[in-house]
Amino acid sequence: MKSRLINLAIAFFWMLLGINAFAQKSPEGGKKPNIVFIMSDDHAYQAISAYGHGLNNTPNIDRIAKEGAIFMKGYVTNSICAPSRAVMLTGKHSHINGKVDNVHGFNWDQENFAKTLQANGYQTALVGKIHMDGLPQGFDYSNVLPGQGQYYNPDFIENGVTKRIEGYVTQITTDIALDWLKNKRDQDKPFVLLYHQKAPHRTWMPEEKYLRLFEDSTFSPPANFFDDYQGRLAAASQEMSIAKDMDLVYDLKMLDKEGVLQTNYRKSFENMYKRMNESQRKAWDDYYDPIIKEFMAANLEGEELAKWKFDRYLKDYLRTIQSVDDGVGQMLDYLDENGLAENTIVIYTSDQGFYLGEHGWFDKRFMYEESFRTPLLMRFPKEIRPGTVIEEMVQNLDFAPSFLDYAGVPISKDIQGESFRDLVAGKQKKWRDAIYYTFYEYPGEHKVKRHYGIRTERYKLIHFYHDIDSWELYDLLEDPTEMKNLYNDPEYRKVQKQMHVKLKEVRAKYKDSTEMDKHYMPKTP
Length: 525
Fold this sequence. Notes:
- By secondary structure, this protein is an alpha/beta fold.
- The chain has 15 helices and 16 strands.
- The strands form 3 sheets. It has a 10-stranded mixed beta sheet with strand order 7-6-5-4-8-1-9-10-2-11. A 4-stranded antiparallel beta sheet has the order 13-14-15-16, with helices on one face. Strands 3-12 form a two-stranded parallel ribbon.
- Helix 6 (about 170-185) runs parallel beside helix 11 (about 300-335).
- The longest helix is centred in the middle third of the chain and has 36 residues, at about 300-335.
- The termini are far apart.
- Residues about 1-30 have low confidence and may be disordered.
């Protein structure tokens, strides 16, 4: 009897080994791929050199496109930080996952792709910015920034325990991510690493080594920098204008020691400045003090002041990106040097796009292209040919199902996104013909009206509502910068009707309606 029990135990042991071995295999019989998902915050596609806008040079991010694929039409479903991350995790629109703005909470008890992969043999980690309260669920290891986080000497919450770390946030985030890969993961398991940078989020505080990058350059604003917003009521009522709303101290670092510039957010920036240690503050003062002195003496006004503000803004914004690009290079080098590159999916994206002076703006929120569209680059040597260019419209809604697909894990029927695995591998031709967008955070910071809308290959229809009732229609082929609202143009009456039909169809598909909005009344931050 004893011998029989021992034999049964041995048989059970080998059965478990077999189950575990099966769990490590994809449906095609190969080893399950690792996933490194790199997300920055507010990184405009215009500020990645692979997209060809010529503003800066990002060789390491570009390398992902060169060795894999670049998506020319990557989009979000809700252009604001925390809601975008909730969509990324769940594969569901904001009105379904409940995280509609930066104020309402996120229910971590709901399913997310990390939980699903964790339950299917993956080791999972989340490092950097997530911008959602509560201990992240679905991760064996988490080390995240509280809220927006700080650029200098930031606090991190490691598995629920808060500690302050000396240094610059972008490099620290990279170091933590690499340390997990090198020292904390089980190297016999496939892994998922969400490696999320704070930069280039406002207030664009550069790393010391990049303070003088672009010092000999002057950036000229986009052609529509002085947009008058004719025919666009919501665009005219926002508060994200570089000329009018960008704070000289908080945003542009004009923290004069005499305290002459008493701006709305001076105190907030003073608190950030005070976090620096003596060495950091010296490097900061050595660079900014002469600029402050020169600015105070110039007494700039009107268009001249607006252009000066744009140039200062863009330089600091791009400098923070340079540190992000450095981190991407360190990550790619680690994967290459440790034999992980071939079987690791690497994605670089942002939680949304950003305005770099287009329409005179900074920030995001609107459904116009610069904030609606996000950078997306992907490398996976096993399936993606180097130099692949994807022209179809994908959204952050599609990350969750795509990751599950690559891992060989069934995709839940309540996930609203679609896997782009076959699309990027060149195996799928038919794809969606319209994408859907919502924005709820009004009243709120920057005063961008609530709106929803759809985009097709050529047209865009937007409805601004809540305290206004305004429709906008754009022909993106004829007017790519969205300067002319064609909604009441008789020549586009047929297009208008077709877009309304498509909008109704898409809203039904994603189970959205005006009634849903009543569940998300404004909350005070």
